[in-house]
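Researcher: Here's a chain I'd like modeled. Treat it as a single chain, no partners, no ligands.
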Amino acid sequence: MYFKLPLAALLLILFINSPGVYAQAPDLGTARDFVLFTTTGAVSNTGVSHLTGNIGAQTGAVSGFGNVDGVMHSGDAATAQASADLLVAYNQLNAVPSTAAHAPVLGGGETLFAGVYNITGAGSTVTDLTLDALGDPDALFIFRIGGAFSAGPASHVILINGAVACNVFWQVEGAAAMAALSYMRGTFIANNGAMSMAAGSKLEGRLLSTTGAIAVDGTVACMPLGCGVPILTGPPAPDMASTLSYALFTSKGAVTNSGISTVTGDIGSNLGTVSGFNPALVTGTIHPVPDASTAQCDLDLHRVNHYLDSLPYDIELLYPAQLGASLVLTPHIYRLNGPTLFTDTLFLNAQGNSSAVFVIQVNGDFLTAIQSTVQLQNGACADHVFWKMDQGTSINNGSSFTGNLICNDPVGLNSGVTLNGRALSDSGDINTDAVTVGMPADCGTVLPVELVSFSGICDQQQFQLQWLTASEIHNDHFSVQRSANGKSWLEVGRVPGAGNSPVPTHYRFTDAQPLPGSSYYRLQQSDEEEGVSYSSVIQLKNCDEEPGMLAISPNPSHGLFHLYYTGLAGQVTSVVVYNLLGLPVYQSSSLPSTINLNGSPEGVYFVQLNTLSRTFIQKLILN
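Model: Modeled as a single isolated chain. Structure tokens:
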């Protein structure tokens, strides 16, 4: 039997099932390497910002930045090429046919699918805007805004079902501003407009302007991964050879300990003595005097030292006295050309590549503050981290340090230090005081998904499940499994994973036909190599088993908000919104999922939901 569909319905089906077929991503060229760039205008920073990617201006000053995980450019060959490439990308975005018009305000809890969305005049985002790729990793989202753009306070762009930030583009005809605590995703290209990010805002993407200043203040911004961006590997790791067996070693000098220290690995000197270590607390061999093993280690350490010293650096960290401060580094060769003070925390982010290598070359004395920390992220492996120290090294009390210290001068590991790595000196004493030193484990497979939360609620007789991942590596999909008894499990749905993502990713799933009574849920995560892992189990009660509850989100609101009622929707008789004078400003005879009070005065309102048996009232604030 055949059915004839109206043309409009057929086109709608084709659009829904073929996300992204109407548009092609622009070619950013070398502009892809910049996280902040303008052809004409100043690029400036205030506060402590954490930026991953190059920063530059073709015509204009670049100022106020501390250490960034990228290269600073001002009026050079790189900015000249980026200017030309940016103009090409802008024109390509201009030429893409539109698939839909959109109201000036994006978000407010709405979900959009792949397409090219046109906004006439100025545009903005409020609260949550969800971009759903429907399982298509190439799904493309383009927003063309005919005026200025603003991301409201705490507004978020959420990517689900395979959507990736590198396939999200915002073309803005004018200024673009991101308010405090906003979290945006995608590449923003402003034409003849300034761009800004307020304190506490985040961006997985880029800010690129044809003409206009760019100003950031205490923000976090990183270039998106995927879409053909090369995976960072860092340089080839040196062949550590016989040095691998040593936790503490110097070619020339003494190795001495005071206090109770625990060491995993050999300890030795090829021209000096070893003293103060309790053999019962050393898992390895103590070489009290030079021998054949220390002689071989001496030769191999010279070679490792020379190799690391000869590597040309990719990125110079321009402020050695400000290392740390929650800076995030990716696999590269870094250079600090001067005495270095390390405070607070340094994050090493492998971006999902467990084979990636980090090399930090320090040309000057190296000193840490007390309780400073090196933390590994997204597959980073301690054995692939190399600190090349040209002068004296002192790790201060209570610090937790990571990586192989390859030094030319004396090394001090002070009281309470934990070193996940090795301290090896070409020439100089090594002194330890009540420390813990453990040689790093071999770099192996990393967990593919770091799950932060998994929860659910009953809403209008359906179970709404949601979960959040901190990062993902080769994540293929999630299987949502349900059980009546917590023992026998049945798959009720499948949600595509983000693949590789270094940033948080939100997921949602609706079980439209839950079991009567209570249900148990868990997630089965499957990676691209067919490995699986499971989440914890949550239990949800059906809506008719618990008293109804009314919730409003977001609250405070800019005007558009959602109602969540956990009772029986069929028993709702009316919903009324009152102002402070008790006058109704909105009424409905059924349960709406969203209410739009845009244009209403700022202030306090009350949302009243009436059912056959009860009345619920929630306060709402509009600002």
